[in-house]
Amino acid sequence: MASAPVIVWFRQDLRLRDQPALAHALATGGPVVPVHLWSPEEEGEWTHGAASRWWLHQSLAGFDAALRGHGSRLVLRAGPALASLRRLIRETGAKTVVWNRRYEPASIARDTAVKQALLDDGIDARSFNGALLHAPNAVANQSGRPFQVFTPFWKHVSALRVREEAPAPPPSLPAPARWPASEPLESFHLKPSIPWDHAFYEHWQPGEVGATAALARFIREAVDGYARERDRPDLRGTSRLSPHLHFGEISPVQIFHAVQRATRGHGAEVFLKEVGWREFAHHLLFHFPHTTTEPLRPEFGRFPWADDATRLRAWQRGRTGYPIVDAGMRELWTTGWMHNRVRMIVASFLVKHLRLPWLEGARWFWDTLVDADLASNTLGWQWSAGCGADAAPYFRVFNPILQGVKFDPHGAYVRTHVPELARMPAEHIHAPWEAPPAVLAAAGVRLGETYPKPCVDHKAARDAALAAFAELKKGG
DNA sequence: TGAAATGTTGGGGCG
DNA sequence: ACGCCCCAACATTTC
Description:
Blueprint: E1 6-10, H1 20-28, E2 32-38, H2 50-68, E3 75-78, H3 81-92, E4 96-100, H4 105-120, E5 124-128, H5 150-158, H6 198-203, H7 208-221, H8 226-229, H9 242-246, H10 252-262, H11 266-287, H12 309-316, H13 323-335, H14 340-353, H15 358-368, H16 374-385, H17 400-407, H18 412-417, H19 437-442, H20 458-475
Parallel strand pairs: 1-2, 1-4, 2-3, 4-5
Helix pairs in contact: 5-11, 11-16, 13-14, 14-16, 15-16
The chain binds a DNA duplex (15 and 15 nucleotides) through helix 14 and helix 20.
């Protein structure tokens, strides 16, 4: 007797290898019906941002092509997930629906309801962990509570065994007798209507092939020097795997094993620790779901944030007058990505120098990053603002000049993204307002005209931030 | 996964 | 020879 079809509901796991849900479907022996459901309203407040949508479009197209290479295809449907699944079950005669879990609050709520409804329908609904090294509900400290400090978290997690990769799929996936209809990808309107995305195509190759290539490149060229060069935005010292990881084009399990197979050196250890921060972020979001909009440390609910649309706009568009900040914000705008060191610098600048709410920064990153990830974004911003888990104390104010000098020593990063400073010599590029007039003139820079003057004075802004923090402490 | 202020030490110039 | 000052270099504390 032939097995019934199995629906594999692909979400942010757009890959064929190390695919626990797909592996389970294949193990049943039944025809496999791969589907992706477009239901942005079910993501709650954090529906895909513009850059994420661009990536998703490319990734879905690539995944469909990959499936077709295996004699299969990706069925697309728009609308509420449960209704779409029920319709697909009717159309295909499927008795089983499988998927890999997501751990964001809105997904958990939706998926739990979907699973219960399908089980009530008599469908075998199953979910798997394909997104994390360890499921968040499987990690707790000695008193049974979630970890809130990274170092003990990672120490604990490092002692756990990482599962083996799921078996690779066969060259040909068993197809249903009749394919259910698919809606055209274009009907989801994921690509921007105005073409701000042209540079994205030069920087990224969304999809499993691009993810695999990025990992291979990193292992070949960068992992050994990672400890030294990861903080240098002017070099290619990081993996740039974040968007691939976010969309599940590659899994942390694959990355973990591939890196460990290649090297056990210090660079590998430091890199895997960064994968650990991603795990920690998901762990925290799972246990503290309110932190997407509320500070984990409740006293920060009273913090006297400023309200200044002009300054927010200057920050967003990379016109603060601080070259390292502006370079970062423009890298983000043109490529959909920003080097992590620079993310910390621009976040510190928004939250401390401008004293604008971290949530404004989180929302901007959410809309503009191709790797926008609710867990990592939330952790990163709360860390920067000093109101989150294991956060930098609020009085840690990054000096944007020193950070520039230290991590972009030749000014190459600034020159790449702030062309109006391209001819500035390295010794003045991070503080052009302190350069002698002759140097500015020779570089063709007229402050306030070709490039903005600093929108705040560093020392005054730092002192004001510390004063606001002292006020908060006093009130508490 | 800071920066700045403050404190300490020690070498060298100099009377 | 000695004390004094200056200051760089480094360490510690504070924000």
